[in-house]
Design a protein that fits this description.
Chain lengths: 287, 205
């Protein structure tokens, strides 16, 4: 057994999070020279993972990851990579969801639905392209596909579509639908005053949306949503062609975008949540 | 087991380079647990681990034609994934430090999995091939901890073997939490080096 210089031990001491970039480069160079240093680095990572109670079983690849791999490697057929795919959002929705369940249908039916969607998309684009008050989208950086666009649709539980900048009592819930133009990982932020929070998905989770309408509905729960309190609120729909990483529930738009290269804002929606009428308020006057 | 994995990966690489595009799917199947498990351990974030996996795989596939020995693909991919995961971690830590200053980070509030002792998880991470190897690894870690100097030895025993929270152990040993943390980090580096077969100068056994 040969000895290890104290300087390398010091670097191992600070690995991986307490070294500056030059120190990390030195340690990596040492690992390239001596496989035992590389092994020690692995052991330290294992130590840290174990101490943090990190999960040891990797999750199945998401649809987005498979798509990204197929694209990056120019594979002919992105078959299931030997693992069950992550359940798409529509599979987690109830019967009243407005998401079109494409998966599991016959090819002819899929082609028919795809044709209808394309036609509907063209009609919608001609209607809303210039003046859509419900959203629009920002050109993405997808280099070989159409720009990712989308809209945010807020509706009353009875289906009435709300206009951006509308007022609504906090006691009246809304249902939120994201409508990206292509499959994407989404996050919905709510900004009320100084507080910016992630409405969906839950911390650590990934919201994988298919092209078209995706109703925001937690599994097994009602899609009805109310804010924490009254006041003007802005809803921001953020998308990324690959999985969005959301480090915390309380994060603002700038930090979320900074944390996810390639992420973009698809749509914004303003809603003025008003306080519920108090019993002490005078009754409305008869017209 | 590791040799079998290298053989299968080598065969997939050879077939892929000979024009069999389906071999790429086999390689993905082989690499996914090998790369994503450690990436998940380092990052503790499935989305980020998946990013690391996709990025690593893309780079590995791009470099396959230049690989001298197809069987070495797993080893090369492991190194690449580890470096990328650490880079992600460092980038995220810098960002989280900023968020923590703003009082908006809830990372610390996440509840870790405590169903197994840390030492068993270390053994599983460092010897993922089989339970038998993991058991040997646990025994080896025990031996090396016994040879460490104090207070690192006591700290590692309490934290690793008994799964006790560091602040509690520090209080019992009469140390501040920050001193105990520094000592634990040093002991961690010593333990890792010794587990890797490195002899350390100036360290009492």
């Amino acid at each position: 057994m040969s000895t290890l210089p104290d300087s390398i031990l010091d670097l191992l001491d600070g690995y991986p999070d307490e070294l500056d970039d030059a120190q990390l480069a030195t340690l990596r160079a040492a690992a390239d020279e001596d496989p035992r240093v590389a092994e020690a680095m692995d052991a330290i990572l294992a130590f840290d993972a174990a101490m943090a109670g990190a999960p040891t079983t990797p999750p199945a690849l998401s649809d987005l990851a498979r798509h990204r791999i197929a694209k990056a490697t120019s594979a002919d057929t992105p078959k299931a990579w030997g693992s069950p795919p992550v359940a798409p959002l529509e599979a987690r929705h109830g019967a009243d969801s407005n998401v079109v369940p494409l998966f599991g249908r016959r090819p002819v039916q899929i082609a028919l639905v795809a044709l209808l969607l394309v036609a509907a998309g063209l009609v919608a684009r001609s209607l809303f392209d210039a003046t859509d008050p419900y959203g629009g989208g920002i050109k993405g950086d997808d280099d070989d596909g159409p720009a990712l666009t989308g809209a945010l649709i807020l509706q009353a539980p009875d289906g009435t579509r709300l206009a951006s900048n509308a007022s609504r009592p906090v006691t009246d819930p809304v249902r939120i639908t994201a409508r990206p133009s292509a499959a994407a990982s989404l996050a919905l932020l709510e900004v009320q005053g100084d507080v910016s929070a992630v409405v969906w998905p839950a911390p650590g989770a990934i919201w994988t949306a298919t092209a078209g309408p995706n109703l925001l509905q937690p599994p097994g729960a009602s899609p009805d949503y109310r804010p924490a309190g009254p006041g003007p609120a802005t809803y921001v729909l953020v998308a990324r062609p690959t999985a969005l990483s959301i480090p915390g529930r309380r994060i603002n738009e700038a930090d979320l975008l900074a944390a996810n290269e390639g992420a973009l804002v698809l749509a914004r929606f303003e809603l003025d949540w008003t306080a519920p009428p108090s019993p002490d308020d005078p009754p409305p006057e008869d017209p | 087991m590791a040799e079998q994995l290298d053989q299968r990966a080598g065969a997939a690489v050879t077939a892929y380079l000979a024009g069999d595009s389906n071999a790429l799917h086999d390689l993905v199947d082989l690499l996914r647990p090998v790369l994503m498990g450690p990436a998940l351990g380092i990052l503790r974030d499935p989305a980020a681990a998946e990013d690391v996996f996709v990025e690593t795989l893309t780079e590995v596939v791009r470099r396959l034609p230049t690989l001298r020995e197809p069987r070495a693909v797993i080893s090369y991919a492991r190194r690449t994934a580890r470096s990328r995961a650490v880079d992600h971690l460092r980038k995220r830590d810098r960002r989280d430090s900023h968020l923590a200053l703003l009082g908006t980070s809830d990372l610390a509030a996440r509840e870790p999995d405590r169903s197994t002792l840390p030492i068993e998880r270390i053994a599983a991470f460092t010897s993922p091939e089989s339970r038998a190897l993991s058991a040997e690894r646990v025994a080896s870690i025990h031996e090396h901890i016994d040879r460490l100097p104090e207070p690192g030895r006591g700290l590692l025993r309490a934290v690793l073997l008994e799964g006790q929270p560091l602040p509690d152990v520090a209080e019992r040993l009469g140390l501040s939490t920050s001193t105990a943390y520094r000592a634990l980090r040093r002991a961690r580096a010593l333990l890792a080096a010794r587990l890797s077969g490195v002899e350390l100068p100036g360290v009492a056994s």
